[in-house]
User: Fold these one by one.
Assistant:
Number 1:
Amino acid sequence: MDPMMILALLAMGCFGGFAAGLLGIGGGMILVPFISAVLAARGVPESLVVHMAIATSLATIVFTSLSSVRAHHKHGAVVWRIVALLAPGILVGSTIGPWIGKQMNTATLSWFFGAFVAFSATQMLVNRKPAAARDLPGTTGMFAAGGVIGILAGLVGAGGGFVSVPFMTWCNVRIHNAVATSAALGFPIAFAGTLANVFYGWGEPGLPQYSLGFIYVPALLIIVAASVTMAPLGARTAHRMPVRQLQKVFAVILYALAAYMFWKAL
């Protein structure tokens, strides 16, 4: 791997790690478009580029989420009760998402990624106030919500914050707590999804050297080295920002990602 590509991956890791701590989105959605570009430049077959970018992105979240949640926990912002209720459904959903993604071609996967990210951004930007009496659902409802979050996160290679943060704020969880709790949820999502991507990608023809299933290991190692150092800085920044400003930053970044993936699909 040439030095310029290594520098590009380090820069991605810094940006993705900061975003993971700031927004609780695991950094995955930030990384997918950039990893896609790197893999394409290395001559990876077009049919595998987005699948591998999603799998590699999801694997980075295993490490980034631990660094991010540690910083949020120091601020007492993680609601561990919500983590415990959502995690079982997330573990189930995160193994299903990569399987669904394997059945989709690159263009379809790119369209789906872009559409869902744009929808999430709009929900955050509109800032429609939830009913004052609205609360989190019961145990069954939380398991179902976790399953949906896990499937979507595993499908698009993200930590689930693009779904879990809007879901929690819709249920009257303060956004700073939603971001911190989403960071904690990133680990079970990424761990289950990574194992699934290794399994579903094992023996796939056309994979480049140093791949572990759909995961491109050199990119994973370089990105993680940078992202775990930046995630705590992002977390500290999040706790200094006003609620509405944090929501707007979240939405703008998601719109930019959606636009790139629509372009990729075309």
Number 2:
Amino acid sequence: MSHLGKPLSPARAWLGPLLLLLGGTCIGLAPIGLRWGLDSLGPQAIAFWRYMFAIPALFLLLIFIERRMPARINGYVIAAGTFFALDIALWHWGLTLTTVANATFIVNLGNVCVGFAAWLFLKERPKPIWFVAVLIAVTGAAALSLGGESGGKTDIRGDLLALGAAFLVSGYMLCSKIARNRLGAMDVIFWLTVTEAIVAAFIVAASGERFFPATLAGFAAPAFLALVAQVGGQGLIIAGLGRTPAAIAGIIVLIQPVVAAAISWQLFDEPLSAIQGGGAGLILFGIWLSQGAARERRQKLASKPSQKTAKDPA
């Protein structure tokens, strides 16, 4: 499944970052679906049904696309799924107490930290340009989060919950990266979702929330999240992780708060100030700049065969 160490065509080299960008955009819609569903279900129940509705869709996709049953689950997938379910539990709770932009920014700090974790555990040392891209993207994310008008809907309790979720994001991304190096993308996202549904069921029971909405219409928001955020968003991110260094992937998915804040501006009366608009621009610039490290890596991989030939003409 892996193509590590092999020269990549330009199209294939850009596939990983493109998948991550599309996945991050889909995940950016997740808080929108959550806000819509809170009138019918609690935040933890919404997360549970997000996973449950996604499982049959992912199973059918695997059967029709791969034409086989799912491969055997491994410990890294279980760990990643547990981290993600706990992350979403804290994040959903935090979203009920603070703004979409605030909660999404804080959680995504974990995506940046995964670059340092990958450096420590996977020996994926980031290029110098990556540190510059991180500084720019995080500065932009901070401006996007903190640059709004005072007296908004922020609450320190929601921010602290989102901070806890950020630590869990790092564990999820790191374990998913390792799992993706051992299993195909479809297998990883399927077993991740199964694990997340099991963990989420215990969380709903512990929280005291009801499992079922009063009417069938209450399932609309979880169904939206299942297709857009879980199958589309998380699936694309898992696929992209198999083709992109974890450090660069963490910056690319910072597109999430930009998407979330832009849509929330229109739907939830959370307008963006000039500072927040500038912050969104910095995030996008940081994402673009991070691709400099990716381009350098791809050029080195592409040059290896020719260097070997030059040294060994015989």
Number 3:
Amino acid sequence: MRLDKFLKVSRLIKRRTVAKDVSEQGRVWVNGREAKPSSSVKPGDELKIQFGQRAVTVRIERLAESTRKDEAGELYTVLSEESTPRDAEGW
């Protein structure tokens, strides 16, 4: 599954176009590597997403083409949430 679609379906990011923009800005990493919106993800992959001064790391548990709002949280497990300085780079 494409990274931008997973971010939207899992509701980590509200819209697919926003997920695409965030990925293109270099704010999403898959297994420690900067990821493009078209990057392929699979269960077991770790995603790190930079939201302003907050970074969230999640592990993908399963994939789904679509989910209901109450089921979206089952697609991933939050591994860590941390505050970071705005100029942090080099993850």
